[in-house]
Amino acid sequence: MKKYEEAKKLPFEELKGISQKTIENHYGKLYQGYVKKWQEIQERLKNADKSTANAVFSDLRELKLEEGFVADAVLLHEAYFDILGGGGEPKGEIIDGITKDFNSFDDWQTEFKALGLAARGWVILAFDFNDGKLRNYIADFHNQGGIWRASPILVLDVYEHAYFMDYGADRKSYIEAFFQNLNWETISKKFSKIAKK
Ligand SMILES: [Fe+2]
Fold it and tell me: Ligand 1 centroid vs 146 CA: distance in angstroms?
């Protein structure tokens, strides 16, 4: 069960090609900062004035909008960190799923990496419960680009904070490093659990 009010622990101690400094900032400051903001918004929602609700500007509107922004930031960052710390060749049931819906693993990988250059925030391989297929999606903001009832399986963060200290503007090399760190056992287990529901 997900608890928004608690930060999830990292499943790794260090990564290849992504520095501790980047992880400390990304996980320690940004991700944990989102968890705290989620708590703050919940507190403020308890006393939000419903009598002044308004679609141009009102406390209730702003708090609910930012609640969605922050919740998606928490969920996507957890999905990103959860699948790192592995390495090795891709394996498991996820390979069959990807091959079925993308023609081949290479075709999927080519599209996913290209989307990493096309997106401004996130690339997400998701299982779409609406028709039972895997699809790649992109998002420019945490709370944009998502499809209702599509569940993230493999998530890549392409905001500059994820790579700029290590790679400058060379996002392509960061994406390669991301792939080198993927934990395919975790990804495959997640896929199997979600797809069999
Ligand atoms: Fe991030």
Answer: 16
pLDDT digits (tens, 9 = 90+) for 34-84: 999 999 999 999 999 999 999 999 999 999 999 999 999 999 999 999 999
**Token match 């075709």: residue?**
107
What is the C-alpha separation between 1 and 60, in angstroms, rounded?
27
Residues with CB under 5 A from ligand 1 (ion): 157, 159
The CA 27 to ligand 1 mean position distance, Å, reads 8
Determine the distance separating the centroid of ligand 1 and the alpha carbon of 103, expressed in angstroms. 30
Task: Give the DSSP H/E element, type plus range, for residue 145.
Answer: none
Q: Could you tell me if residue 46 is inside a domain?
A: yes
How far, in Å, CA of 90 to CA of 165, rounded?
27
Q: Is residue 114 part of a domain?
A: yes
What domain range is 150 assigned to? Answer: 93-195
Identify whether the C-beta of residue 134 lies closer than 8 Å to the C-beta of residue 127. yes
CA of 84 to the centre of ligand 1 (A): 14
How many domains would you assign to the chain?
A: 2
